[in-house]
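Reopening this ticket.

The earlier resolution said the output was attached, but the attachment link was broken on my side. Pasting everything inline this time so it's all in one place.
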Amino acid sequence: MKKLQKIMLSLIAALVLIAVIKVPSQAYVQNFKQSSCTESTITFSWNWQTESATASQFTISSADGLYSKTVSNTATSATFTGLPKNYGSRFTLSYTLTYSSGYSYNYTSSTYANTLPSTVAKGNFGVSSVLIYTKKVAFAASVPTVDSASSGVVLELYKGNTKVGTYTFSSSSSYISIAANKDYKYRVKYYFKNYSNGQTYYSRNWSVLRHFDLATASTVAKSTKKGCTLTLKKGTNVTKYAIYISKTSSTSGFKKYKVVKMGSAKKKKVAIKSKYKKKATNYIKIVPYIKGYGYSDVGTVYYQYIYK
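Inline output:
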């Protein structure tokens, strides 16, 4: 009987202790967030809410398990350095509160974070499609993906030195109307839109400028032996044209036929001979050379059917 009474008294004491201890309903670290970043660093900040308890050290860890950092219990910020390009993850801050009663309670607070997007390399963006007869182009880019944010590209398009517009897309744009035989240039930046704070982070620098000129021409079919005559119309800042011919496809198999220098001429006729496949569609591609840049990113393809 005495043993049972002791057990009952112990249970009552335990219940009283639990009632006395206040288990907080929310974390004592508030506003744990990404406060800044560079291409290789992420800085976190938080507010410490004073309570009648002692906090352990703060540990911040990435969800992928690659990065972890421990700082003192008085710290309100921490920076991760040496991160790879275009990195993002969910980060969790963990710590323990110990009360004067000896009771301890574990806390966590999480947020998504990412580095600043890198500068877009020249080979990672360009014109992806051309509609020559309606004079439209579309753009595409190779965009990095991160676990912490949606990502995409911002593109600025210029005709000469006049800005045409700014376009935002995830990996490929819709078609954009342009004028023929004009020197267009364009550049891009990556962006990351963070899932936690909603902030959009852009590449620090724009990419290099790329150029294109949608060259127009007309062809006049003659006999198979004589080929055809190509009439070139000189574009803005264009000094010459490279002409290619393919007997198999509008997208591949092109071989250089000749380079035509325009000089001061506004138009020039070019005879193309003995390069055709009989009784089939042949493809002529014209690529302008833009002064100060080089050959256009876009080559215009025309179709020529040889009947004889």
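Reporter confirms the inline version is readable. The chain has a mean pLDDT of 86. The first helix runs from residue 2 to 20.
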